[in-house]
Amino acid sequence: MDKKYSYKTFILEIIGITLALIFLVPFYFVFINSVKDFADILIDAAAWPKKFLFANYAKVWEVINFPKSFMNSLIITVFSNIGLVVISSMAAWKMVRTPGKFSKFLFILFVSAMVIPFQTVMIPLMKMGGTLGIMNSLPGIIIMYFGFGVPLSLFLYHGFMKAIPLEIEESAKIDGCSQFGVFWRIVFPLLKPITVTVVILNTLWIWNDYLLPLLVLQDASLKTIPLATSSFFAQYTKQWDMGLAALVLGIAPVIVFFLFLQKHIIKGIAAGSIK
Question: Exposure pattern of 4-18 as b/e (b: 16+ CB <10 Å)?
Answer without folding.
Answer: eeeeeeeeeeeeeee
